[in-house]
Write a structure and sequence with these properties.
6 helices; single chain; alpha+beta; six-stranded antiparallel beta barrel; 208 residues; two-stranded parallel ribbon; globular
Length: 208
């Protein structure tokens, strides 16, 4: 709660529109606290995420603005299924996006501290990732349906908070354009709005 209060104080003091924290491995190993829960709480107020991924938090901020202020989240593309992907973070998830009461457990591998382990609620979602290549900036965009998170964890970790995403497009096409393991998410279909914004900002939209 002290970490959450400190981050919220920084948000108010500097009038931040979004916030990302470099959590690995400085906070968990030096301070013995992975900030998963504080960031999950803060993410219900402003776009927030971990691992210091600046293109990711910009992607979340874009989705936040285009969705008229909806809560945004993010996850890692962990695995590929026949019709989509397994999408989860190693402890972070905006609490308001979870299906029911949040479940909290202690990290048991890699980090120290608490983490969320709940499944996201079901519904239509948009995934987006801002990235750069030799041609400039691009935005990878995909839509799909969030479904309950299957049993999934890594290297002795507890169950991850996340979702199974049934993509509207071809799974192979999505993976061919994969811009990072991290993707921003928001509920609803914002594909057309993102493409229009990209055209105005000279960002190349890549829809799959």
């Amino acid at each position: 709660m002290k970490v959450y209060a400190a981050l919220d104080h920084l948000r108010q003091e500097h009038k931040l529109d979004a916030l990302t924290v470099k959590c690995q491995y400085e906070m968990s190993r030096l301070y013995k606290l992975a900030p998963c829960i504080p960031l999950s709480m803060l993410a219900d107020q402003i776009p927030a995420s971990c691992e210091g991924d600046v293109p990711l938090i910009l992607s979340q901020l874009i989705l936040h603005y285009l969705s008229d202020g909806q809560v945004t989240g993010y996850g890692d593309v962990h695995d590929v299924t026949e019709d989509g992907i397994i999408f989860a973070a190693c402890g972070f998830a905006p609490l308001s996006l979870l299906d029911g009461k949040p479940e909290v457990h202690a990290h048991t591998a890699l980090y120290e501290g608490l983490m969320t382990t709940s499944s996201f609620r079901q519904g239509p979602i948009t995934l987006a990732r801002l990235a750069s290549d030799r041609e400039g900036f691009k935005m990878h965009i995909a839509t799909g349906q969030a479904r309950p998170m299957p049993k999934y964890h890594e290297i002795g970790c507890p169950q991850y908070a996340g979702m199974r995403v049934i993509l509207n497009g071809e799974v192979n096409a999505f993976m061919q354009h994969l811009a990072s393991q991290h993707y921003a998410i928001v509920y609803g279909d914002l594909k057309e709005e993102i493409v229009e914004l990209c055209q105005q900002l000279s960002i190349r939209p890549v829809v799959s």
